[in-house]
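Quick log. Single chain, no ligands specified.
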Amino acid sequence: MVCSLGDNRQTEDSTGTDKYKTISQGLTSIIVITYNKLDYNKFCIESIRKYTEPHSYELIVIDNHSTDGTVEWLQGQQDVKVILNSENAGFPAGCNQGIKAAKENNILLLNNDTIVTPNWLTNLTKCLYSASDIGAVGAVTNSCSNFQSIPCEYSSVEEMIRFAGQVNHSNPGLWEDRTRLVGYCLLIKDEVINKIGLFDEDFSPGNYEDDDYCLRIRKAGYRLVLCRDTFVHHFGSVSFKEQANQYNSLLEVNRRKFAQKWGLPPHLAAPYQLTQDVEAGKWFTYQYEFSYYQHWVENTRRKFLSFMDQAEFSLLSGDLEKAALVVKQAGDYGYHSHPGFFISPRLELILHKVAKTLNSRVTTHLPPKNMEKRNILHVLSQGCAASSHIKTLERWVYLDSESIHSIVVTLNSTTNPQWLVDAAIHSGGWYTTLDTANLSLCQKAKALRDAAAMWADVVVLHIHSHDPVAPIAFGVAGGPPVVFVNHADQAFTIGMSTADIIAEQRAVGQRITLSRRNMNNSFLLPIPLGIPQNFRDKQAARKDLGIGKDSVVFLTSATPYQLVSCGEYSFSHLIRELINRHPNIEIVIVGSSELGKWTLLKSQSNSRIKVFDFQQDLKKFYSAADVYLDSFPLGAPTAALEAGAVGIPVVGLATDFAAHFSGDIVPDIVKTHFSNLEELFTIIDKLVNDEVYRVNQGEHLKSVILQHHYLGWQENLNTLYSLLPIAHQPVGIPVVREQTATNSDIVWAYFQYRSGFSRSSFG
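-> predicted structure:
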């Protein structure tokens, strides 16, 4: 391992250093315990030298009989006070040796597998001496228990130092009272040590000695504070990792020692603070979890802003293609890792500027335009048979039979189903792909702009949140008017500012567009549904699925990530409760693999819970079902509407304040989703026990859905067409004030992480 640190130097914090120096702070004795791991020891000690104010500290290293060259290296360090042990005395005993050698100084215990950062000790000391009753303070890090870690993305020391530079600005608003602090980086006042004494060496070689010491600090009348304005990198228990079994055994032994000493286990001796906000508490049990995801959103926002900086630099350098590529990366990142906002005016402006300077030359060959009908050009980024936006496009084509529909695919046509191609051709239109033509993003945009000008009367965008091709193509005035279909209304997206009208599919999505995107050119166009189908005989369908003929069958169609448990929102717990509550029901889940918890639930329910992989055709499942149970935390509105359209009553759990997760499928007309489990169970009990009520509810829901999403959909579409201008005129860049992340933003980021969504990207 090469020991090398970044070029950042210790600098004076801009917030000043005098405000919190209410008591003489004295010298700080930094105590590091080493046992082999020479490379880590060098990193740690050299970072202390580099990022700590000279003459503010002394460095004491206690070596527990290293044999890898650490001793020899330490003996060559003139600024280090070295204490060499003839055996491994363990962490608590080593700390006590260092404290005794430090005499009357403040003590900072620092693991040898850390790298300190600019302003680290200055910030910690400010907090420690900001009040007389603060006894010890700690820093946040990348790897630590006790909710002391924060989300981080870096892959080198240099990147880590830059990240720390963004965090390490002294801010009393980020000082957080705690019941315990992990001892990997712990600054303790000398008066506290004088009052409560040394570490308890019964916990040697280590673990729970810091829990014990923190409890003693609190019992002496002092507070513990976590400084969220101070970041220190922590590689994480390198001394124990190589002996995992021994480490786990030691944890259990010392946990019992702690319980015997204090009469209660560690987690009860230092209980975590429950989430203060009642609604947020349904998602996060502890306040520290909530704080963690606040940091997550802040870090995501910083990374997103770095993408914008890169895109703007590329634009200024005249590299339009690079600017478009970076915008594409930013859109992908912002969609999968919520940055706390739903649109970026800076990014939209970049797209408009690229659009104005677009000069690519592309030859375009298209069939002749039909002069007797309206010609609709649908622009699609990519799709697959399971995607609801692909079904929306297909149904748009079939329901709008008065128009001719053609489709252009910009990014990836390999997964598009043949039935989508057939729908366009059946309408009299055509289907073409730009991704197979070996074109750059800007060339695709120019080809799309030319195609629209030559052939289309209206352009409809069904694009992914990261696709810059259409926004660049239509970022200038002229040509046919443009409709942006807001398929991903719950997430960040790019390109809306190029549209004449935004077609919203849900009222909750429209509220986000109006309030968070600050765009008023919004029109509510319900999700279109296909022609109502005649289903198979119920008993025949049940026989095929292995369902009892007298059972009341609940159906759910959802992908695995829609069903991931978040706080109190646990779909698996709900269906377990339903199975226990009603012996005559069976539950069918389509779209998830029969693995893990689903296998266990199937076994526990005596196979009354059945799980099926994704199914293209749900006809058999709808035929067998009596009630549709919407997924949560994230609902599946299209699947729920399809179920309701065939007379199956729909129920679900509405998510508090994060309304874009799950809610009524026909808002203000039929109540389908309920705000708490008690209300949901009440309606489910009635649906299970009263067949007449169940049938009536299904028929009422069916009539409402068909009126809005099938029979009356064309009328809504015609209204949308009538609102379009004669020629395209982009609405312009929205003015969106930068704001701190709301609870809803934090919950959305949390869900993305829990479901694995934040670790994925567009294919």
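The CA atoms of residues 553 and 625 lie 5 Å apart.
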